[in-house]
Design a protein that fits this description.
With 349 residues, this protein is α+β, with helices and mostly antiparallel strands. It is 61% helix and 7% strand. Among the domains are: 59 residues; 176 residues. A four-stranded antiparallel beta sheet has the order 2-3-1-4.
Length: 349
Amino acid sequence: MADETKKPSGADESPSGTRRGSAAKGSAAEVAPDKENASGDASTRRPAAKASPTPQAPSRRSSAPTSDPEVKGSGDDAAPAATPRVADAAPAVGAGGDAPVGLLSAMWRYKGMCVVIVVVCVLASTAIGFLLTPEPSATATIALKTPSQDNVLAPGSTGDASLARYTAQRARFVTSDAVLGNVGAVLGVDDLNELRDQLEVEPSTDSNIVTITASGTTSDDAVRLATEVTRAYGEETEKQVNDLTDAALRSIDESAGQVRATITGSNAAVNEAAASTLGQLQQKAATIRTSSAVLGDGVEFVVNPDESSVSSQQLPIREAALGLILGLVIAGTVAYLRADSDAAKQRRA
């Protein structure tokens, strides 16, 4: 009876045990996927944990991030890209490295040297400009009288060709010792060659104009020299005309004396010829006197200079500007070469 009573109870418990076993199996089945998911998550997280290792020293060979498509992922499975660090960037070139040398920076670095070079070039160019610039000069003009055919300065002068020769002759007389001696006595200059070097005389080829250009240390000196030359020319020309006239008249008088010596009282033909010759000589003497009186100092008119017409010496501004440009070029070149040489020494060091 006891056994029979236990069997139904065992029969009653088997369904529940079966249900319990199935429930246990179900819970175990549910736990198993969770473990698999957990293991899957753990396997997924392991590469992410390895992607950020302990920071190491950056490599100089290559600091650029890799571009391999296999390393990059998508979604939750991709490892996060490493952020580039400042240490991975290319190092900047410091002073004295391989950076190119700038012209302006080189000139500023050696500005003292550059200033000296520019100042020296400007001063040298200005001095050369002063030396090459002509001294103040004054120009005077002398219009010569047209000589007659019987003048004593250029006997027989007729026509334009003779006038050109006469003008050139009188231009040479301007720089003669007689004229310059007169000028030197007034100006207190004994060296006639010095005065001659300060004068430039140019005759006209188709007229009776003589142009005199006088130079001097100052404008006043140039004007005074030109004025004194025109004055001395007139005085010395008049003296020359008078001397030549006196010489011509003396020659006529000598000829007349010789003719008179041939006159005799017995030969009428000889006396008549002598009388004719004496008349011609007297007529020639009168013509010479008249021509000399008309010619006088040989000057028709004179145009003397004044200070307003003097070409004064100007400041050599153009030469100074050229010196400035040349100085800047030289200073820039020297500063650049010096800076480049210093940079090369630093690189080798």
